[in-house]
Amino acid sequence: MSDINSLLRDNxxxxxxxxxxxxxxxxxxxIFLDANENSLGSPISPAYNRYPDPHQVKIxxxxxxxxxxxxxxxxxxNGSDECIDLLYRAFCxxxxxxxxxxxxxxxxxxxxxxxxxxxxxxxxxTVNFELDLEVLEGLVDEQTKxxxxxSPNNPTGNALNRQQIETILNNFDGLVVxxxxxxxxxxxxxxxxELTEYPNLVILQTLSKAWGLAxxxxxxxxxxxxxxxxxxxxxxxxxxxxxxxxxVLMALQETTRVNEMIKEIVRMRNELAExxxxxxxxSRVYPSDANFLLVRIKEARRIYEILINKGIVVRDRSSAPxxxxxxxxxxGTKEQNDKLLETLTQITIS
Length: 350
Ligand SMILES: Cc1ncc(COP(=O)(O)O)c(C=O)c1O
Description:
Elements: H1 4-7, H2 10-13, H3 21-24, H4 57-67, E1 74-77, H5 80-91, E2 98-101, H6 108-115, E3 119-122, H7 133-139, E4 144-150, H8 162-171, E5 175-179, E6 201-206, E7 219-223, H9 225-234, H10 242-251, H11 255-277, E8 282-285, E9 292-297, H12 300-309, E10 315-316, E11 326-330, H13 334-349
Parallel strand pairs: 2-3, 2-4, 4-5, 5-6
Antiparallel strand pairs: 1-7, 6-7, 8-9, 9-11, 10-11
Helix pairs in contact: 5-6, 11-13
């Protein structure tokens, strides 16, 4: 059984957190002269002269209804990227600790490690983009603080084998972070139900993908009360702005619309995969549990550049391990997908 406190950095264990004006007084009053805000208001309407709720209570209450998890198990960040950054700050000693990633995967686990001076060890996914537990086991040592698992994985699109993830959870005492940014597009279930069993499990989700709110910046971490408490102690006090909090709260009422969009994207993804796989230059369209496709195509770089010249931007992932000649293509609108297919067909024929 993991002892989360023993994983913490010493300086974080001893930290006396910043107490904001909103922390020190939370009752009802009508004259607020405690936070050095502009008492005259804002130059725009509605006014944003007051600091936002540092604990985002209303959003967490709504998320409790949607996710079935009490607020004490929910942390909100300025995108999942902030949650990733804070996990390093809390648990990884620069120049001493290491983390493990499974390339090809989402780039911020590594970039954030470099920012924090933390060593990154790589257990590449197999040729079928599954976890390689033997390689992983050989990399773990006393200083391994986090194993990052991205499922469904970016850029490969597949959900990773659940039993293998459970094996990691059952055998590793550091933090296991499962990034579920694309979970809403997957046939596989979230690991949220597993939180009660594993005190070292952290699940990341985001409103940037299925919820269609990338511009608002709202990431979620779900974990044991202890881990959530640590993240709350070290975060910048007002990390989610007032406008974001208001708009997110409105959006979280729209579950029906979001579910419709998810269904539509999944339907278009499957159709796009089928049509792209018929192109003669395409050797493989990888199975996707996400809102994008990884496509292995002859002369990927040249095709990428032709697409750009036609005003269509996809991602060339050819330099990622195991992804030679691969483009990552986000599912677009029907018109955008048709245009992409038409352009790809023309390139392939000429
Ligand atoms: C796997 C994964 N995690 C996290 C993110 C970033 O999420 P956010 O917009 O919440 O910072 C992305 C964005 O592409 C992603 O692919």
